[in-house]
């Protein structure tokens, strides 16, 4: 079942939101307020999550609060990769959580945390245990990124691609399983924490890994999964058939579903990081997905008095 709807992904990361088009995040704030309202109108009991910050930045939280965004979300999410992309040490994780806790009374979820095997699979295995030891019990949700390595024939969803140097290629080594589906040493370590530390696994359109991923997650004992439904993909032929297949396959997990990625023809500029031309269109996409996959259930009728 869907336990939460996440609005966008890493909005303060230029790989996922273009700051040149929206330098003060005014357009993002408008879009998020509308999306939060639309989700609540469809299902008032569904948890609304503000897209995970990366970098972790309390000033960004204050900025969005000043624009009324936090009135329309229930949870603030953060992402961190201290051994790969962040300029802080892994032992600072609890301090990073406290930095955000100091500026909001919203619950904090960590919806992406990971360590790549780019340099060493053994380092990744150590990173799984270290992360679990540092974070389990500190926040209500943790999602390890990710189950699978990104296939080398695909592109990572970043802004500058290979121009990012080794930072770009680390995207292809974040999985606990290699591209061919064989386990890395980190998978066995992760299995000890799977019930308390969920997974984040993005599935591409008509992803061939879906069924195997479900089998692995059930074998590991994963309870909580974060994934996405792409607004851009919704314009592909047979998009709803794929969305239905994906969400049906994931029905046994507590799913946080992320709504993001601007369709090229609906952006101010033709790129997935662009603010939409019409913010209401993104809000309607969110509403449509909630109606389809997380509809509000009517309250149970009280039992009639007898005797």
Main β-sheet, in a few words?
Answer: 8 strands, parallel, barrel
Span of the ends, CA to CA: 39 Å
Q: What oligomeric state is this?
A: single chain
Secondary-structure content class? alpha/beta
List keywords for this structure.
307 residues, eight-stranded parallel beta barrel, 9 helices, alpha/beta, 8 strands, single chain, Glycosyl_Hydrolase_39, Beta-xylosidase, 15% strand, GH, globular
Polypeptide structure, described:
By secondary structure, the protein is an alpha/beta fold. Helix content is 32%, strand content 15%. The chain is built from 9 helices and 8 strands. The chain has an 8-stranded parallel beta barrel, surrounded by 4 helices. Helix 1 (26-42) runs parallel beside helix 9 (279-293). Mean pLDDT is 93; it is low at 300-307. InterPro entries: GH, Glycosyl_Hydrolase_39.
List the helices and strands and how they pair.
Elements: E1 2-7, H1 26-42, E2 47-53, H2 58-66, E3 75-80, H3 93-101, E4 108-113, H4 121-135, E5 142-145, H5 166-170, H6 185-191, E6 198-200, H7 210-220, E7 224-230, H8 239-249, E8 254-260, H9 279-293
Parallel strand pairs: 1-2, 1-8, 2-3, 3-4, 4-5, 5-6, 6-7, 7-8
Helix pairs in contact: 1-9, 4-6
Write a compact overview of the structure shown.
The protein is α/β, with parallel strands linked by helices and 307 residues long. It is 32% helix and 15% strand.
